[in-house]
Amino acid sequence: MTIQRREFVAALATGSVAGLAGCASLTSDSDGGSITGETLTLTTTSSTYNTGLLDELNAPFEDRYGVTVDAVSQGTGQALETARNGDSDVVMVHARSLEDEFMREGYGVNRRDLMYNDFVVVGGPDDPAGIGGGEDVVASFEAIAESESAFVSRGDDSGTHTKELELWDETGLAVEEFGDWYAEVGAGMGDALNRATQLDAYTLSDRGTYLDMQDELDLEIHVQGPIEGGAELLANPYGIVAVNPAVHDHVEYDLAMAYIGFITGPEGQELIENYTANGEQLFYPEALSEDPNFRQYVPEGWNGADGGESNDSSDG
Amino acid sequence: MLLESIVIGPSLAAFPFEWNYVWSIIVVSLYVSVIAVALSTLCSLPIALAVGFAEFRGKQFLTSVINTGMGFPSVVVGLLVLVAVSNQGPLGSLGLVFTREAMIMSQFVLAAPVITGVSLAAVSSVEANVRDAAYAMGGTRLDVALVTIKEARYGIATAVLAGFGRAISEVGSVLIVGGNIAGADGTSKTRTLTTAIQLEAQRGRYETAMVLGAILLVLVLVVNGIVIRLGSDEGGYR
Fold it and tell me: What is the CATH number of the domain that holds A92?
């Protein structure tokens, strides 16, 4: 019976594809380069998704090219994993070490710096660990651990989680040995902020999501990131990477590059610059520069002699 | 005074988001769940009838397998369907990942055991003498099956409802295989009521989440009403 059902499910899938024209996007080999009518699958992080920035960016892009952008919100780790499996065409993430790994493995090509914001350490107004106004984020993390004040960790391999673990590393404390005050919630940024409000806990948040949700939260910024002149360690750069068509020949590479071109170009960058929540700018564009930084395109420690992917970028 | 405010309810202006967004979410939810349940019903009823009528060794075991399937965790089903439809999976060439079709597949797998199990119980409970009488009157197997279905129609309606309830209210699998996608124009592609509630709750917009939750409850009630009505309107004996 299970066999029968499995066959049925397979038949169902086949039938629904045959019956529903246009839902299967198979190969998109450059057939003269027309991308109209295609669908771009973008995996991105909860911070760009939940703040509403993506809708702002995607609508004009869709209109211009007559395409559809399907944005799937995942943590950075999951977004890259989805791309590794060839289930998305382009990723917008914020953990350079993970992005480098992704490119080194050959899954990603043509990375660009896109924008940045920063991380902030937020917590309840009573500030039990006494870290308010601190300049040194590593010292504040030490103070939190020292006083065993409640701390909410994303625990989902996202960019923010990766950054948080880096900060604990800096303190030299082992996360595995933390007591009950350290709660891994395994959820997106918004969820973690809600949880921190309920538990009256500290958490590391990207500034954008915090500002966007400020009204619903009972949390204050105790340690500022570089945007407000705080610790440089809390910088949070976002990158965008196309999935390598040499690995997954079915990905919409032309469309992915058109998208990257659009959001790293003047128009997309201006949209990012002007996007605000509660009257505050959430993200700072970073792709336009007099002096393009070559390192944005390649993984750390890369040199041309590796015989890796050729990183010549020839998009308009 | 109080009654008045309840009757009038929240004005449209106070509604926290756009109607077309909510509407598209409702449409996607219904589209996915109704198709999944319809396919499950087509698949499950014959199985329930066959198992209910036949006497064979292992019937007890098969029944318990079906009943176990009722409690299959939706997240696990979602994961298995994702692995199947991912570009690395056996159905990868169909390009189904993050589509409504993939969501239908996972809800089909979730609803089928429920519909089969509850129908089987209903069919088994139809008196054997009804069947004997039908045979005695020279009925073919098909006639007997029809009579049985007619006798067990409430049970079968309940089964379909239970399957629908299971499908429309689950969040785990549709989140994994559908990806909770809404277009930049504010229309849902694979966002259902449950995943939208999850997203709104994650964003701390509890009021919006509550409104969506209320819509979901109303939807389930309405569907229940319709199915019960259909079940009771089917004629009696000829």
Answer: 3.40.190.10
Q: Token match 């058109």: residue?
A: A258
Q: Are A80 and A98 in contact (CB under 8 A)?
A: yes
> Is A108 in the same domain as A61?
yes
For residue A213, give the nearest of B97, B189, B203 by CB distance: B203
B189 touches chain A (CB under 8 A): yes
Nearest to A116 by CA among A232, A215, A213: A232
Question: What pTM did the predictor assign?
Answer: 0.77
Mean pLDDT of chain A: 85
Distance CA A61, CA B184 (A): 10
> Quick check: B206 pLDDT over 70?
yes
The SS3 call for residue B49 is helix
State how far the Cα of A240 lies from the Cα of A112, in Å rounded to an integer. Answer: 5
A262 with A209, same domain: the answer is no
CA-to-CA distance for B96 and B114, rounded, in angstroms? 25
Quote the number of domains for chain B: 1
- pLDDT tens by residue, A155-175: 888 899 999 999 999 999 999
| Same domain, yes or no: A171 and A108 | no
Q: B146: domain range?
A: 2-230
HSE at residue B84, side-chain half, CA atoms within 13 A, is 19
Q: Is the pLDDT of residue B82 over 80?
A: yes
Judged by a CB distance cut-off of 8 A, whether residue B205 touches chain A is yes
| Shared-domain flag, residues A241 and A266 | yes
Structural domain containing residue A182: 118-234
* Angstrom distance (rounded) from CA B13 to CA B184: 22
Q: What is the CATH number of the domain that holds B40?
A: 1.10.3720.10
Q: Which two tokens stand for residue A132?
A: 């308010």
Mutate to test the interface with A, among B44, B63, B203 (most CBs of A within 10 A): B203
Q: How many CB atoms lie within 10 A of CB A135?
A: 11
Give yes or no for a contact between A47 and B156, defined as CB atoms under 8 angstroms apart: no
Between CA A40 and CA A62 the distance in angstroms is 10
